[in-house]
Amino acid sequence: MTADEVQTLIDSVPCDLCNSPPGLQMYLVLAAMIDIANGNPVPETTQGLISEVNCLLCMVPPGLVPYLMVQALRDISSGGGAGGGGGVTCGAGAPVAAPASGCGLYINTTDGTLFEYYSGSWH
């Protein structure tokens, strides 16, 4: 990547993204990565992304964010987005279906429980 390409990228950052609340940057990245890993578009507005972050803030302690980022990257690389990887999903209650890739993460939005799927079952 050249210096000009980096500057072009910097210049393309919308002003409202720079004004996101302090401390949310890692959660913003995680939310975008989860969207991509699950084959969904990243919200075009910062407020749309912050809405996703609000869910994550309730469910994911800061120390777990890097691990979820690694899992999302694994899912992106193994499935190219579009659901090919295990993904990081969330929903009310315990997970039911097994991820197609044989591994994945699930966040119970009712109580914040994090489930991991490996070796044929949810843990």
Any overview of this molecule?
This protein is an alpha+beta fold and 123 residues long. The chain has one domain. Helices cover 45% and strands 13% of the residues. The protein contains five helices and four strands. It has a four-stranded mixed sheet. Strand 3 and strand 4 form a beta hairpin. Helix 3 packs across helix 4 and helix 3 packs parallel to helix 5. The radius of gyration is 16 Å and the shape is globular.
Q: Which H/E pattern describes the elements?
A: HHHHHEEEE
The proportion of residues in beta strands is 5-15%
**What summary fits the major beta sheet?**
4 strands, mixed
Which strand order does the major sheet show? 1-2-3-4
Head-to-tail CA distance between termini: 41 Å
How many structural domains are formed by the residues?
1
Strand tally, please?
4
Compute the CA-based radius of gyration: 16 Å
Helix content: 40-55%
General form = globular
What is the tally of helical segments?
5
Instruction: Quote the average pLDDT.
Output: 80
SS-based class: alpha+beta
Residue ranges: pLDDT <50 for 5 or more in a row? Answer: 80-85
SSE arrangement:
Blueprint: H1 3-11, H2 15-18, H3 25-37, H4 46-59, H5 65-79, E1 88-91, E2 104-108, E3 114-118, E4 121-122
Parallel strand pairs: 1-2
Antiparallel strand pairs: 2-3, 3-4
Overview in brief:
This protein has 123 residues and is α+β, with helices and mostly antiparallel strands. It is built from 5 helices and 4 strands, in the order αααααββββ.
